[in-house]
Amino acid sequence: MNLFRKLLLKLLGLKAYYIIISRVYTSFTANGFLKKKYPELFYLEKIIKPGFVCIDIGANMGYYSTFLSRLAGSTGMVYSVEPVPLFADILKLNLKATGVHNVKVLPYALGEKNGTIKMGTPVVNGLIHHGMTKVASLSDEKYAQQYEVEMKVPDELFSNLQRLDFIKCDIEGYEYFVFSNMMKIISRFYPLIQTELNDAEGRWKVVALLASSGYSAHRLMNSELVSLSESEVNKHTSDFYFIHK
Fold it and tell me: What would the pLDDT profile of 176-186 be if each residue is shown by its tens digit?
């Protein structure tokens, strides 16, 4: 499979390659395939209701955003935060191709200040891993592409929201910097939060930060959210869900 992907990338070029794989993925998931492989994605069907307002932080090429938009419906709204210009362009193309009209693409990184920041897409085993794009200063990885992107403070960016029901965050180790600068909006609405927390130190910072506002950590097990004990937080490797008590 890796050899096929490398060949496809060489033949098509980076942007066309990304467009094809993202279209295949969104088509598969829209038709109910890959449920066992991506249980977190399909769990959205149980928690996102028509009219919901959602924020997709680290939207990439729109895998979650297109799913969220369908579930939130015409009375709902999805804010897709994607700072990498290439990914944001493909996200817009994918949204247009699927006829989505309730998604607003925000081409920013989120963090502790307004300004610019460098991000990079790493190479792993000879393949470009677009889903692992991250703030370049967080790692010594080799990057296939680097980008200088605009950063916004999320509490300022979303200050005018009148409703917020759900936040999905997948930003490869930068979660604490985002959530710590988003607590005003979170504390106004107490949305359900879904996030990756792969960095051990950052994980506990996020858990403590959200716990201070009345949130408890959960995991998805057999299509239900189950509370995580302190020892389980250390071992958990899938997405975390935070529910306000």
Answer: 999 999 999 99
Q: What is the pLDDT of residue 141?
A: 66
End-to-end CA distance of the chain: 44
Any bridge partners for residue 57, and if so which?
Answer: 81, 169
For the chain, strand residue ranges (E) read 53-57, 77-81, 103-106, 109-110, 115-124, 127-128, 134-135, 143-152, 166-169, 192-195, 215-221, 224-227, 240-244
Range name among 1-15, 48-62, 121-135 with the lowest pLDDT average = 121-135
Q: What range does the domain containing 48 cover?
A: 2-244
Distance CA 195, CA 208 (A): 14
Q: Report the distance separating Cα 144 and Cα 127, nearest Å.
A: 9
Query: In this predicted model, what pLDDT tens digit does every residue of 213-225 receive, in sequence order?
Result: 999 999 999 999 9
Give the number of residues written for the chain: 245
CATH of the domain at 171: 3.40.50.150
From residue 94, alpha-carbon distances to 28, 90, 121, 124, 183 in Å are 14, 6, 20, 26, 31
State how far the alpha carbon of 245 is from the alpha carbons of 16, 127, 158, in Å. Answer: 45, 42, 23
Number of domains in the chain: 1
CA distance 123 to 141: 8
